[in-house]
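// run 5 | inverse folding | seed 20
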């Protein structure tokens, strides 16, 4: 049978071991020095050039219901920058054959977009001082263009709001019908 002194020593040892397990912030043989707080690196946009003007063979239609316009994404323009923003070119065609062309950037994590350039006679004209906008700004999220941008985000970004690889974006665009 164990002596009271041995039991007391065992209880003390067990209590000290449990205190260390239960309080992992306690130092082991030294003083506690918390890690300094590190600010996350602020997001910085990467400046990319404008791609070549879209050609018919690279356009994939993104179907939208209840609109008089057809929306296309130029698969040749799809790119993900080091800043994790997706760049793409949109062609909006009306039933009367009028076309509007825009080159845009999309931040998958925030859902913000920015029009970088617009098409004019088979060339792009850069937008002066483009700004990031929420999808609900200006155009409105219930408009056809707002619905298009929501569809673009769900097609070009993952469910966790990260940009997909361009090959996966193209696959999703092709099977969106």
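// decoded
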């Amino acid at each position: 049978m164990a002596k009271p002194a041995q039991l007391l020593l065992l209880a003390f040892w067990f209590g000290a071991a449990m205190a260390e397990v239960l309080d992992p912030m306690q130092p082991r043989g030294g003083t506690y020095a918390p890690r300094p707080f590190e600010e996350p690196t602020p997001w910085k946009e990467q400046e990319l050039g404008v791609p070549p003007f879209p050609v018919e063979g690279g356009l994939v239609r993104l179907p939208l219901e209840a609109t008089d316009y057809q929306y296309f994404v130029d698969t040749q323009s799809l790119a993900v920058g080091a800043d994790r923003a997706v760049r793409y070119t949109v062609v909006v065609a009306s039933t009367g054959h009028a076309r509007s062309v825009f080159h845009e950037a999309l931040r998958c994590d925030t859902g913000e977009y920015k029009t970088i350039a617009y098409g004019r006679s088979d060339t792009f004209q850069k937008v002066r001082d483009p700004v990031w906008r929420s999808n609900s700004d200006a155009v409105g999220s219930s408009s056809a263009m707002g619905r298009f941008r929501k569809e673009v985000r769900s097609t070009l970004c993952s469910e966790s709001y990260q940009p997909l690889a361009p090959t996966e974006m193209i696959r999703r665009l092709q099977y969106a019908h």
